[in-house]
TrEMBL record:
Molecular function as annotated in GO: FAD binding
Pfam family, one: FAD_binding_3
Domain of life the protein comes from: Bacteria
Residue span, FAD-binding domain: 12-354
Protein name: NAD(P)-binding protein
């Protein structure tokens, strides 16, 4: 029996027009005649931020593992973004990255390029591409409130989505019929509730409590006035703050101060922000930012927990319904992997659509999507759980790996090849197991015993509690 309903007259609905939803829509447009993206926000023109994507105001970069996929799905987009003034950074010397108190080597050495562009600009450029695809439309200002279904053998089959105008309370709902509904509504996704309503179990959910705060602002710095394009002072043992400063399009720089730990909040007052910058940032950047005009107010964002909803473990799934992007898993944003994972999920969805029937699609997709998810999850939670204040499930293997990564990072301060290898893994170009390649292990083992953390001297006053040797140190 022909189980697929794709083909002539087939319809898909994607909920949410963030990067996840746009990637899903791009892939679905190859298979479905009509793809409707239902988005709660009314879209701003150009690369402006919007309410539904509050993370858009904060530092955002596309990892090296995502960039080729972005180009594969949207040919020519990289050149278009470069023309807008976005930065592709392809040399170690153009970045200053300190992780767990270790500054990666800054030798002139080519690395797989990462993309630095503001999140609203990137989303806008992708959205415009998706809008131009045949059969795709974006239904703005509409909130998805539930799904409709029928019974198909022993399983539920989703037949559409119930929507209501987002701006008007108690407005009348209507239904958009669909053969496939993809929920890309982000970390607030109501998919677990919908599954229960459809007679299925909720997925197991792993959570790691990290309490990361962001406070960010945009500045304009004259082009070519700076030696580097992307600076991250990441989390380090005993430190309450870190920062990220990313060169973006049109000579804009996004500058975020991050706070770590429950009860900590990153400062919004200009004096305190500049004080921290002078403590933590390379002097050229602190000076440039002190002299630059801010282009907007400081925006705050809190990321209390990372989560992974394990849909791939569910035995019974309804036909015609998928979760996608942050609706499945959202990682600690300081590792910058969410958009790359969404692109990898896009590839997994494309393969699943090409190779399976509708009935098998959910299982096939979730299993394939779990592979890139588990790499990103291991990296993000492995690094976070090295800090005693992080709450989550710890394993002996994780602790051993944490100690090895700490040695690796200490060695990568002096060894550009190890620094490049670390970036390739952090950027999801290579699997975490690449850190354990024989040549890398040999170098790490032979490297001198790690010295004290190389935190900027000036940052000594930013101490949450006495620095002590943790698995990350
Ligand atoms: C502070 C911060 C910094 C980050 N930095 C990076 C980074 O540097 N690099 C990186 O790769 N990733 C980063 N991320 C993660 C990245 O933003 C996401 O992983 C990625 O954009 C995928 O998100 P999404 O599209 O699945 O969900 P979202 O971006 O949350 O989009 C969900 C969309 O659904 C809409 N919506 C919600 N509910 C409904 C509803 N009921 N009906 C209709 N529409 C609805 C929302 O309006 C929104 O448009 C960061 C995240 C944060 C919080």
């Amino acid at each position: 029996m022909e189980e697929t309903r794709r083909g002539r007259g087939s319809r898909a609905v994607v909920l949410g027009a963030g990067i996840g939803g746009l990637v899903a829509a791009r892939v679905l447009a190859d298979t479905f005649d009509e793809v409707t993206i239902v988005e709660r926000d009314v879209m701003p023109g150009g690369g402006h931020g919007r309410r539904g994507v509050p993370q858009g105001r904060h530092v955002h970069g596309m990892q090296a593992g995502g960039l080729p996929l972005l180009e594969e799905l949207f040919p020519g987009l990289r050149a278009e973004l470069a023309g807008d003034g976005a930065h592709e950074i392809a040399d170690l010397s153009r970045v200053s990255l300190r992780f767990a108190g270790r500054l990666l080597n800054q030798a002139e050495l080519p690395v797989a390029p990462v993309l630095s562009v503001s999140r609203p600009h990137l989303e806008w450029r992708i959205r415009e591409r998706v809008r131009r695809l045949s059969g795709v439309r974006v239904a703005e200002g509409l909130e998805a409130v539930g799904v409709t279904s029928t019974v198909d053998g022993d399983r539920a089959r989703v037949t559409g989505v119930r929507v209501a105008p987002a701006a008007t309370r108690d407005a009348k709902e209507r239904t958009i019929d669909a053969d496939l509904v993809v929920d890309a509504t982000g970390r607030g996704s109501r998919m677990p509730v919908w599954l229960e309503q459809l007679g299925c179990a909720r997925p197991d959910e792993e959570r790691v409590v990290v309490h990361i705060g962001y406070a960010s602002q945009t500045f304009r710095l004259p082009r070519d006035s700076y030696p580097q394009d992307l600076i991250i002072e990441g989390r380090a043992p005993g430190r309450r703050h870190g920062f990220g400063a990313f060169a973006c399009e049109q000579d804009r720089w996004t500058f975020s101060i991050m706070s770590y730990g429950a009860g900590e909040r990153p400062p919004t007052e200009p004096e305190e922000r500049m004080r921290l910058m002078h403590q933590m940032a390379p002097p050229w950047l602190a000076e440039a930012l002190s002299a630059a005009e801010p282009l907007d107010d400081v925006a705050r964002h809190a990321h209390p927990t990372s989560h992974w909803r394990h849909y791939e473990r569910l035995g019974r799934l309804p036909v015609g319904l998928l979760a996608f992007g942050d609706a499945i898993a959202a990682f600690n944003p300081i590792y910058g992997t969410g958009m790359t994972v969404a692109l990898k999920q896009g590839v997994a969805l494309r393969t699943a659509l090409e190779t399976t029937t509708d009935t098998e699609l959910p299982r096939r997709f979730y299993r394939a999507a779990a592979r890139p998810l588990s790499a990103a999850w291991a990296l993000s939670t492995g690094a976070d759980l090295a800090y005693p204040e992080t709450l989550g499930k710890r394993t002996r293997r994780g602790a051993l790996m944490g100690r090895y990564v700490a040695r690796f990072l200490a060695a990568a301060e002096h060894d550009p090849v190890l620094a490049r290898r670390f970036l390739a893994v952090a950027g999801l170009v290579e699997a975490p197991s690449a850190l354990l390649a024989p040549a890398a292990v040999a170098k790490v083992v032979r490297s001198p015993a790690p010295t004290a953390l190389s935190l900027p001297e000036r940052a000594r006053s930013d101490v949450a509690h006495a620095p002590r040797e943790t698995a990350a140190s």
